[in-house]
């Protein structure tokens, strides 16, 4: 079975997502999985700019916080309906992303990453210190749940789970369309070589900014869903550690692949749930694990699978070629 590519593998993942609420033993498991889906959606966006375009954005978690705070401020302070605030979370993230991208993407490599790290820290300080807008360290509480449609309500954990799951499916489908389009191949050409892409007539700045904006829109919308699911917000959401978490998800699953960040974002949260007794030593434990993954599994789970698949096809190719050249006896009906 093709687990990481093709319709069969994606159908399996989709079915598992649909039946999970029926095998979950309590609402806490649904909450953990819903939160994992939200961060998976944000990680899919980070993978676009990092895995497919080759620009490591260390402010990605802060853009997720911007989307969350957009929903929190509009719904709590200005009584804006949730879905209008949710749309605004993507719009605000896109506008801010365009402004940051136009400045930061003039830099390359680690200079770009350091610049976005500084931008992310500025966002964190704004959220923490601007009490009149963001409530500061007092947090935003009382964020309404996503409003339902007709008889459908999203107040229960199961209904909220399916809502988040639907957005994740839609987000992954849209990302699949993007990366397999001419635009996606343009992003990958930029990742492979700026100079070669430019020689082919690709406008580097325009396409880098577009990739950056698309990626932070994913982060902003994920933040909007997070606000509606958790119902309260604090400045810690803008911390760089969330970007590092998403980076770990990409590395574990397979950076630059579509299924990799998704798998990583689903595996790691459940692993941390079972290792909660090590929570105080989180970075002491996961730091060495991440280093070992980079050394011995640099392409992640999906990358390892694809590499083995290529090796198997290479080993079988010479044998099949020899069989094709060897004379074959034929029967009276003309079949070998």
TrEMBL record:
The keyword Disulfide bond does not apply. GO terms for cellular component: plasma membrane. Keywords: Cell membrane, Membrane, Transmembrane, Transmembrane helix. The chain crosses the membrane at residues 7-24, 30-49, 82-103, 110-127, 159-179, 209-234, 246-271, 283-307. It is found in: Cell membrane. It is a multi-pass membrane protein. Residues 317-336 are annotated as: Disordered. One of its GO terms (molecular function) is branched-chain amino acid transmembrane transporter activity. This is Branched-chain amino acid ABC transporter permease.
């Amino acid at each position: 079975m093709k687990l990481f590519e093709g319709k069969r593998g994606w159908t399996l993942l989709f079915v598992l997502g649909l039946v999970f609420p029926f095998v979950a033993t309590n609402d806490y498991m649904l909450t953990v999985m819903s939160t994992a889906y939200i961060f998976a959606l944000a990680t899919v966006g980070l993978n676009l700019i990092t895995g497919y375009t080759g620009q490591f954005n260390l402010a990605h978690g802060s853009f997720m916080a911007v989307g969350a705070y957009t929903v929190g401020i509009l719904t709590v302070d200005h009584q804006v309906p949730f879905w209008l605030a949710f749309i605004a979370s993507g719009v605000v993230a896109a506008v801010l992303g365009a402004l940051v991208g136009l400045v930061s993407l003039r830099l390359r490599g680690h200079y770009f990453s350091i610049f976005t790290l500084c931008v992310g820290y500025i966002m964190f300080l704004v959220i923490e210190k601007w009490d009149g807008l963001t409530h500061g360290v007092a947090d935003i509480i009382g964020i309404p749940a996503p409003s339902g449609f007709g008889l459908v309500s999203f107040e229960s954990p199961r209904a909220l789970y399916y809502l988040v799951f639907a957005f994740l499916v839609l987000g992954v489908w849209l990302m699949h369309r993007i990366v397999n389009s001419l635009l996606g191949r343009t992003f990958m050409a930029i990742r492979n070589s700026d100079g070669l892409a430019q020689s082919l007539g690709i406008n580097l700045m325009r396409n880098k900014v577009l990739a950056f904006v698309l990626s932070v829109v994913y982060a902003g919308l994920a933040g909007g869903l997070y606000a509606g699911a958790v119902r309260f917000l604090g400045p810690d959401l803008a911390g760089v550690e969330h970007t590092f978490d998403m980076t770990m998800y990409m590395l574990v699953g397979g950076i630059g692949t579509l299924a990799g960040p998704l798998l990583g974002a689903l595996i790691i949260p459940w692993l941390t749930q079972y290792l909660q007794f090590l929570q105080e030593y989180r970075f002491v434990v996961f730091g060495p694990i991440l280093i070992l993954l980079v050394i011995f599994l640099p392409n992640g789970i999906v990358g390892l699978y694809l590499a083995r698949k290529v090796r198997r096809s290479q080993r079988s190719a010479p044998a099949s070629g020899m069989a094709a050249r060897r004379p074959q006896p034929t029967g009276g009906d003309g079949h070998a």
